[in-house]
Each structure stands twice: as C-alpha cells, then as structure tokens.
Specification:
Elements: H1 2-23, H2 25-45, E1 50-58, H3 66-73, H4 80-83, H5 93-96, H6 100-104, E2 110-112, E3 119-121, H7 122-128, H8 136-146, H9 169-181, E4 182-186, E5 193-199, H10 202-224, H11 226-259, H12 266-303, E6 307-311, H13 324-349, H14 352-361
Antiparallel strand pairs: 1-5, 1-6, 2-3, 4-5
Length: about 350
C-alpha cells in the first residue's frame, strides 16, 4: 500500500510540475531565444582561424643504444639526450620557438592571402591586415590606459626595425601572439617533431608552417655543422698560406736554377739543394693541409642532419575554430537549463495549496 501511495504522489507531483512549466512557458522560451540570438551574433564577430600541421623526424646520431632508449622512453625517460654530443637535442626544440630571436626572424617572410588581396611581409600582415572582434580595441585601450611602462624610443633610421633585444610594448604583444600561434612538440619515444601553426588565413597559415619548418631545419643544420664549418675555414686559411709559401719557394728555386745553370762549385750546388728541400718541405706542408681541408669538408657533410618529412604543410580547407554551431547550442542549452531551474525553484518555494488554487483559477 505504501508503494502505491508513493507512486500516486509522484504522479501528482509530476503533473503539478508539468502544469507549472506550461504556465511559465514564456519564462522558458524567451530567455532561451534571446541567448541563442545573442550568442550567434557574438560568435559571428569572432574571426575564424585555420591550423596547419607539419611532422618531421630528424636524423639520430647513435644506434647502439636505440633499444635501451626505447625501453627508457616507455618509462618517461630520455637517455638519447644523455648519449648525444649535441647541447641542443630534440627535446629542447620547443624551447627554441619561445625565443624572441627566432620569432622576430619570421617577420621578414613574404606571405599572400588566399584571396590574393594582400601580398606583404608577415610583420606588416600582423600589424595591418588582422581581423579583430569589435570589443578587442576597447580592452586594448583600457590596458594601455592603466599601463605604467614607459615607451621605448628607437634610434633614428631603425623605427621600423624590430630588435629582439629591445622590444616596444606593441612589439612584445605581437611576439607573444606569434608564440601562441606556433606550437611545437616532440614525441619522447620516436623524437618526431610536430609543428602546429594557426592563422586567420589558410594560405598564410600553410606558408608560415613551411617557413617555420625550413628555418628549424636550417637552425639545427647550422648548429650541428658549426664546429666543422669553423674547422673548414681554419684549414682553408692555413692551406692558402701554405700554397702562397710554396709558390714563393718554387719561384726562388726556379730563379736560382736559371741563374746558376752551369755552376760547378759545391757552394752553389749546396744552396740549390737547400732551396729544393725548402720547396719540397713547403709542398709537403701544403699537401698535408689540403688533405685536412678535404677531410673537414667531408665532416661538414657528415654532420649535416637529414630530415624525413612525415607530413608536409598544406593549405587547410576547413577552419579550426571557433566552433560556431557548438557555441550557440551550448549557450542555448545553458540558458534553457537556467530558466528551467528558476521555474522549478519558484515552484518549490510556493505553497502547494496556493499553487492548486492558482491553477484552478487559471
């Protein structure tokens, strides 16, 4: 009997809630529609952005510890960096993208929008061809109003140049924005480098991703071959000096032999032999340095890393965000839930007898 009474009371309460909600349909419908329209208007004002993904695998130096490295990486350790002679190993590449010098170096890249209306440098594109929401300038002006940092003055003739050592407030904000648009990650197990670039224009996005990938490869190549290139320049200088000394010694020996062709005195013969020995010594030194020069040149090629492109940059066809439909649906659902909660709470606060009287009168 008690279970039947509970079921009957539950049915009566649900009917009471249903009648109350039907009576408060305006409270449920109007706020939900207003929020849906406002959220649609707001989300349309936010510019869309695109993302391009690039994946590449750098060449590894050692293979003898590859199995041990794979085992350690499964536990979250990277022993590849311990065995590598490079101070900058793949796990540090993401930190490179946080460098102001690297970001400022991207400003001279020539970009073009997909509609071919803008053809300029990446710096000018960021400064003069970006889309913003209507309320963004308001927040920027408020921030500048309360900012107490003094404005930096640049030297004459360098007003349009961006110095990574001394950035103005606007340039600093610009650099920080680019850092957020370029994300780099490295897989600890495979050392695969993944670069994600985000921009408002799909063609600019793909162009920047390709340029970032190329500059990363150039940076790694220049770093790994820097010692070999210095050795090559050093041996090249020594080889040129040795060649010059050898040419001088050859000229002296030839001139002496021509001027003392019929000499029979032992003193002349001894001096000729000394000049010949000196010439041979200079040739041996030049030959040795030239051999070392060729070895240093081969070392540059040996130290030059090879990169395997797993995924090249391509122009995205669909925007990455903002998700307009999802935003509108979520905001509309939240507005409906809040309106429903307010309606039910008003029902719970009211006296059931008064509610029944109001429903009978209605």
């Amino acid at each position: 009997m008690k279970d039947k009474e509970i079921v009957q009371l539950t049915i009566i309460d649900l009917q009471r809630v249903k009648k109350h909600l039907l009576k408060k349909w305006k409270l449920l419908l109007f706020p939900t529609l207003i929020v849906a329209v406002l959220s649609a208007i707001i989300i349309v004002q936010i510019p869309r952005y695109y993302t391009t993904k690039v994946m590449l695998a750098p060449e590894e130096d050692g293979t003898s510890v590859s199995s041990l490295s794979d085992l350690a990486s499964s536990f979250g350790f990277d022993i590849g960096s311990m065995t590598s002679s490079d101070a900058i190993y793949p796990m540090l590449y993401p930190d490179l993208f946080e460098s102001n010098d690297f970001v400022v170096g991207l400003f001279d890249i020539h970009v073009e929008t997909l509609d071919e209306k803008v053809k300029t440098t990446y710096l000018d594109y960021l400064q003069n061809h970006q889309k913003f929401a209507p309320w963004d300038p308001i927040f920027v002006n408020i921030k500048e109003f309360f900012s107490s940092k003094p404005k930096m003055k640049k030297a004459k003739g360098k007003e349009n140049e961006v110095d990574p050592f001394m950035l103005s407030e606007s340039e600093f904000q610009l650099v920080e924005g680019v850092k957020k648009c370029i994300q780099c990650s490295v897989d600890k197990k495979t050392n695969v480098i993944t670069i994600n670039v985000t921009d408002q224009d799909p063609l600019v996005c793909a162009t920047l991703a390709d340029s970032v990938c190329s500059r990363l490869q150039n940076f790694i190549t220049n770093y790994r071959t820097s010692k070999s290139r210095k050795d090559y320049e050093y041996y090249s200088k020594l080889a040129q000096e040795a060649k010059h000394e050898y040419d001088i010694a050859t000229a002296k020996y030839s001139a002496y032999c021509d001027s003392h062709r019929d000499a029979i005195l032992q003193a002349y013969i001894s001096e000729r032999d000394d000049l010949e020995n000196e010439m041979q010594s200079k040739y041996n030194a030049y030959n040795l340095l030239n051999t070392q020069l060729q070895a240093a040149k081969a070392k540059i090629q040996e130290r030059t890393p090879a990169f395997t492109m797993l995924q090249n940059a391509s122009v995205p066809t669909k925007p990455e965000g903002p998700k307009r439909m999802i935003f509108v649906i979520v905001m509309t659902f939240l507005a409906f839930v809040i309106s429903l909660s307010i309606a039910i709470s008003s029902l719970l606060k009211s006296n059931p007898e008064e509610t029944n009287i109001e429903e009978e009168n209605s």
